[in-house]
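Tokens as discussed.
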């Protein structure tokens, strides 16, 4: 009896190895994995409904979902919670999903620590929303929006300390502080001594010195001695040095508006925040300089019925018909 069973099992195994179905006796093209599947589980199978591919798929899905959660939570360490302009301040903070991560303290390179996220309120913006819905544009209400953090004149509240290199060296310095180590390359026009004019060709002063970035080896600012006294910095990217006319011109602001540009607390150093404020002033001039000159800002937004606009010359998008 046992010999018969062993003989039948041996014939079945031999038939399976040659692609012969033991049940029908038909010859087929059965592969090794299919042969195993005919008598048991497929290769890599854990149960009838779970194999290695399914395990790998769900492991990747779990990893990717966790990664997205982590990155979305970490990018909320700054800028959150957001605020709805249609609601009172902090009435309904907008955080979204997932929630902000717990506070974490970082050690700064220059010493000290910073804890993020913090819930310090941002500075008040001297402006108002044109329309009562989130994302509506801001309209400046100050007398000189070029100095206010709004629109193209907006700036980040970076540290009010100068940028440093290794060895505690200042990164941004005037040429007078570096001696002959830095100079204007031969063949280029040296703007020192050239008059500086605004977009109205009015002379504001003359270039007194150049400020360089020792980290990137770039000319960054022109130091201007104003005609009425005082010194101001102008970003080189807003200046057009003309060797032909021997002058420096900017198309950002008018000549008389140089005096209102932000000043430095120290004559030979500039902080990161002062950099942003100066660049924002000249960037804001592209939009606000003409309005500031005409005195359009700092007034109550009275409606002009003939033009359908407000005191700043902005046309309304919606009107209410009279009964």
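Sequence:
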């Amino acid at each position: 009896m046992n010999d018969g069973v062993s003989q039948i099992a041996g014939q079945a195994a031999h038939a399976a190895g040659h692609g012969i179905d033991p049940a029908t006796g038909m010859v087929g093209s059965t592969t090794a994995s299919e042969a195993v599947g005919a008598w048991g589980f497929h290769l890599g199978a854990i149960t009838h409904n779970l194999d290695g591919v399914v395990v790998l798929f769900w492991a990747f899905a779990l990893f990717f979902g966790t990664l997205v959660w982590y990155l979305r939570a970490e990018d909320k360490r700054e800028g959150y919670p957001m605020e709805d302009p249609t609601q009172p301040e902090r009435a309904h903070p907008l955080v979204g999903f997932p929630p902000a991560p717990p506070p974490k303290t970082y050690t700064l390179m220059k010493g000290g620590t910073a804890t993020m996220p913090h819930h310090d309120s941002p500075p008040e913006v001297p402006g108002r929303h044109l329309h009562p819905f989130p994302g509506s544009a801001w309209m400046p209400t100050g007398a000189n929006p070029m100095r206010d953090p709004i629109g193209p004149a907006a700036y980040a509240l970076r540290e009010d300390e100068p940028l440093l290199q290794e060895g505690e060296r200042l990164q941004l310095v005037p040429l007078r502080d570096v001696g002959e180590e830095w100079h204007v390359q031969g063949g280029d026009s040296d703007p020192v001594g050239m008059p500086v004019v605004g977009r109205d060709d009015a002379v504001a002063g003359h270039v007194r010195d150049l400020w360089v970035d020792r980290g990137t080896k770039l000319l960054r600012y022109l130091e201007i001695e104003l005609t009425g006294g005082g010194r101001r910095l102008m970003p080189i990217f807003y200046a057009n040095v003309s060797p032909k006319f021997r002058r420096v011109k900017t198309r950002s602001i008018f000549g008389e508006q140089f005096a209102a540009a932000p000043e430095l607390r120290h004559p030979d150093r500039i902080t990161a925040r002062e950099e942003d404020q100066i660049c924002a002033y000249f960037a804001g001039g592209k939009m606000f300089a003409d309005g500031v000159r005409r005195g359009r800002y700092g007034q109550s937004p009275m409606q002009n019925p003939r033009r359908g606009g407000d005191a700043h010359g902005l046309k309304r998008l919606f009107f209410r018909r009279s009964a």
